[in-house]
Amino acid sequence: MLTSRKDEHLSVVLGQRHKKSGKTTGFEAIDFVHCALPEMKLDDVDVSTTFLGKRISAPLLVSSMTGGPKRAASINENLARACEDLRLPFAVGSQRIAIEESEYGGLGRSLRTLAPSVPILGNFGAAQLNLGFGLDEARKAVEMIDADAVYIHLNPLQEAVQPEGDRDWSGLFDKIVALSDALPVPVAIKEVGSGISATLAKRFVGAGITIIDVAGAGGTNWAAVEAARMKDPQRAALANAFSDWGIPTALAVADIRDACPDATVISSGGIRSGIDVAKSIRVGANLAGQAAGLLQAANTSADSLVDHFTNVIDELRICCFCTGSQDLEALRSAEIRRVLG
């Protein structure tokens, strides 16, 4: 049933059969002030940075994508090849099936063989910690792909509306912190489309978990995705009632940066272009992550992904050039103005 559900999720997102959220990322309310005299060479713009101790070519992360084992295997292989080619980090989709059922879906050591030099992040849901997962399963998630870190994703809204959802979320903070203390690699926290508040981020950072992926509102809304696969109209209506739920990505990033100045903040949720990546960096992110925006390319070929990422990185570099920012540090203080609606 789990494998079938993951395949349904992928089909809904690829086919865009779910209700579109009326909530936006918030980046549309921000404009860079154009610099008509950059006084630099475009070729000298440097958008490289460091993540998990490795140098990457741009502040761009491939965020987690899911699917049943057969479809996921192809997607993961394409991601690994493209990310190694461009020196970009990537996070795999949920490893729950691989851990529970040994259907690896490309989530084996071959993934590290394809991408030996870039950061790879494992991934499983926080709710599984109340359903038998513990340190052994977390270690397996790391070891099966030789991960540099592991995402523990938070998706209470999706689980609440999903007919098969996991609804016991009691005591999870302490369990996540205990795993973080015991694992040999960093734990990173991410939402899946409803955002993380500054209050919660500050709790995690205070407990030693310093990588926060906001995965805010404005991108894929998983309540709406769940609604699209429901046969019961009443349950679908309940799920769709939350299609506008969540903290907009730009707001989540800015608030967490203010509250947690030393955290590694990843901006994801509706990141559609290199301009969105640039705005993410400007409001406080260290990196920006894409998932649904590159799913079609990931489902096609590694070459399609390379083309997609190359375009995103070119847009980011032009944003730097046209704000007079020679690198990401300069971009963080580029002049911006709020757009009046």
From TrEMBL:
PROSITE patterns: DHODEHASE_2
Protein residues bound to Mg(2+): E159
Localization in the cell: Cytoplasm
Primary location: cytoplasm
The keyword Endoplasmic reticulum is annotated on this UniProt entry: no
Sequence ranges assigned to domain FMN-dependent dehydrogenase in this UniProt record: 17-95, 173-336
CDD domains to which the protein is assigned, alphabetical: IDI-2_FMN
An annotated GO BP: isoprenoid biosynthetic process
GO MF, any single term: isopentenyl-diphosphate delta-isomerase activity
Catalysis performed (reactions): isopentenyl diphosphate = dimethylallyl diphosphate
GO CC terms: cytoplasm
Residues that bind substrate: R5, K6, S94, Q95, R96, Q158
Pfam families per record: FMN_dh (PF01070)
Keywords noted in UniProt: Cytoplasm, Flavoprotein, FMN, Isomerase, Isoprene biosynthesis, Magnesium, Metal-binding, NADP
Residues that hold FMN according to the record: S63, S64, M65, T66, S94, N123, K190, T220, G270, I271, R272, A291, A292
Cofactors: NADPH; Mg(2+); FMN
EC number annotated for this UniProt entry: 5.3.3.2
InterPro entries: Aldolase_TIM (IPR013785), Dihydroorotate_DH_CS (IPR001295), FMN-dep_DH (IPR000262), IPdP_isomerase (IPR011179)
Recorded family membership: Belongs to the IPP isomerase type 2 family.
Subunit structure: Homooctamer. Dimer of tetramers.
Function, in words: Involved in the biosynthesis of isoprenoids. Catalyzes the 1,3-allylic rearrangement of the homoallylic substrate isopentenyl (IPP) to its allylic isomer, dimethylallyl diphosphate (DMAPP).
Protein name: Isopentenyl-diphosphate delta-isomerase
Organism of this sequence: Hoeflea prorocentri
